[in-house]
Amino acid sequence: MYSNRYTLAYATGVTVSVAVVLALASSSLRGLQAANVRRAQQIAILETVMTDVNPETLDADYAAYVDERVLDYSGRPVDGVATVDVDVRAELRTSPEDRLYPVYVYARDGETRYIVPIEGNGLWGGINAFLALQADRDTIAGVVFDHETETPGLGAEIATAEFQDRFRGKRLFADGGAFASVEVLKGAGNDVAGDPHRVDGLTGATMTTRGVTEMFRDGLSLYNNVFQGMDP
Amino acid sequence: MSTVAVEEPRPIVAEPKEPLLSKKNRRLVSDPFGDNNPITVQVLGICSALAITTQLANALVMAVSVTFVICCSSVLISLLRATIPPRVRMIIQLLVIAGLVVFVDQILQAFLFDVAQELSVYIGLIITNCIVMGRLEAFAMANRPWQSFLDGVGNGAGYGAILVVVAFFRELFGSGTLLGFQVVPQFVYDLGYVDNGVMLTPAAAMFLIGGFIWVQRALRPKLTDVS
């Protein structure tokens, strides 16, 4: 029979050793993991505007076509801050004037696209997207969604090309220039032809698509001002 | 998590030295492929077998990850078995398993990022895979490290073999591909063949595994009363 003291000391010892091993593994692999996340982001950014992203030439393509900028509320560049340093989710909690607005400007063969990162919440966890706008900074050229833990086959369908294609050609702003956002409707089979601010939804993914609608509204409503002030 | 009958830890007595791959030891590896398969006979680890078998590549990574976790945790627990206070033994087992699983997840995120994204939550769920803790409780707590290691290899591979076979059928008939490569030629589709969408749902894995169990028990009548 083991004494209480032995049992307690034993459990503590094992716990601490496991914690130390995991902490060592985590801190020594962090650099590699961050590079993977960064690479996945670059692929997502290019996929909003390119259909043929080649993972082998990714670094060169990204450097050649994409200009990363961090802007303030009036559209002026903010010095000393890189896009990787901006936590989009945390910025949502700051006041509009103090907020940082990352914009990825894609320029290739005379074509310009403005790509904006947005983050929000789905049903189970975070969702995020890169949204590409055409040169008029209004019409959607493409969008790539990602999610942490949405249900496969239901909410996770937002990350499919079929759903993402539905946003192409929709517009963020009304004719007078006021922010109108894009709303994802409940259920599938809605008639959205000719409506620039509505997108057909997904059956069984009401909460996730509502999260998409909110993510668009919260993440993009203030970019109007930024776009007006920024250099092309 | 289902519970497994606990074998009383036997008093450790000096046994005569036996060869590393004696007949008894070989059976530790081969039994889980046949009459003692963790999925088709013990019916453990079913949830992950249903969830991640839509693609062969995922099934292979899952099989390797689970085998790694079973082997390492079996050896560790077997080394510690004489010192573990019985009252906290399951907590200690769970700690070792959870630590190893998080370790595997970190490795995958660093070196196989795409696979880690694809398997996402299921790697974490290895912790609750009953096979792992089942082997620790039923075998590693009462046996030497080498035997425990072989038992881990056998059970991990026996589990993985079923996963791979199920994934083979699901990917082939559900997507027309194997390991991501198109194997069903285009002219077959032109003739009117369509991929079977049911194969992509977990229900299809249930039918397949049910089929295996049926065939196996029909061939080996002595198994029918086991569970």
Mass-distribution shape of chain A? globular
How many DSSP H or I helices of chain A? 6
Radius of gyration of chain B: 19 Å
Poorly predicted runs of chain B are none
Lateral arrangement of strands in the main beta sheet of chain B: 1-2
Question: Which strand-content bin applies to the residues of chain B?
Answer: under 5%
The number of distinct β-strands of chain B equals 2
How many structural domains of chain A? 1
- First and last CA, distance of chain B: 16 Å
Word description of this protein:
The complex is a heterodimer of chains A (232) and B (227). Helices cover 36% and strands 19% of the residues of chain A. By secondary structure, chain A is α+β, with helices and mostly antiparallel strands. Chain A has one domain (44-229). In chain A, the strands form 2 sheets. Chain A has a 5-stranded antiparallel beta sheet. In chain A, strands 6-7 form a two-stranded parallel sheet. In chain A, a hairpin with a 2-residue loop joins strand 2 and strand 3. Chain A is globular. By secondary structure, chain B is mainly α. Chain B has one domain. Chain B has helices at 23-30, 46-51, 56-80, 89-111, 113-124, 130-138, 145-175, 186-190, 202-219, and strands spanning 177-178, 181-182. In chain B, strands 1-2 form a two-stranded antiparallel sheet. The radius of gyration of chain B is 19 Å and the shape is globular. Chains A and B meet through helix 1 of A and helix 4 and helix 5 of B.
Concise synopsis of the structure shown:
The complex is a heterodimer of chains A (232) and B (227). With 232 residues, chain A is α+β, with helices and mostly antiparallel strands.
